[in-house]
């Protein structure tokens, strides 16, 4: 874990840069403005969810609990008739502080693994471009590739994955640049 002593500054500083970039992207950037659509009949849907007593968590609609239930004609009809949904429920209220802290924690975690990989791949004094390439690629993979299965399996719109690609490229450039700049000489 000696890499933490050598690379703590690029880990922390890249997390700070990514947090600022993320805030600008989501508050002022145009590309996420129409990503989330309003639900038709939103008030009725929210009322139905409240009446259902569903706890916070992830839900599949319709949901079969085993392979036998998936073969049931009633379940098959639900699948055919649609819609099929993945729903994530959170409790009421919106406290941004803990969510922002978790986002910073995520950026620090990515920076930790970028530092680990770069430390074991590159020598002290490696040229800026070599560090940029390794750190940026690792950061890109961390920020982007995990979104693809969400579209394959859970219906996240592919447009949303494309928008995430833009964010991931920016995050990769910032991370690669920070590590290249502060790489031990």
Provide an overview of this structure:
This protein is mainly alpha-helical. The chain has a domain of 127 residues. The chain has 8 helices and 2 strands; from the N terminus they run ααβααβαααα. Strands 1-2 form a two-stranded antiparallel ribbon. The longest helix has 27 residues. The radius of gyration is 21 Å and the shape is elongated. The two termini are 19 Å apart. The mean pLDDT is 95.
Helix/strand layout:
Layout: H1 2-28, H2 42-52, E1 57-61, H3 67-71, H4 73-81, E2 85-89, H5 96-121, H6 128-144, H7 148-154, H8 158-182
Antiparallel strand pairs: 1-2
Helix pairs in contact: 1-5, 1-8, 5-6, 6-8
Give me the number of helical elements.
8
* Mean pLDDT value: 95
Q: Give the strand content.
A: 5-15%
How many strands?
Answer: 2
Structural class: mainly alpha
Parts with pLDDT < 50 across at least 5 consecutive residues? none
Write the element-wise H/E pattern from the N-terminal end onward: HHEHHEHHHH
Main beta-sheet strand count, sense and barrel state: 2 strands, antiparallel
| Rg, Å, rounded | 21 Å
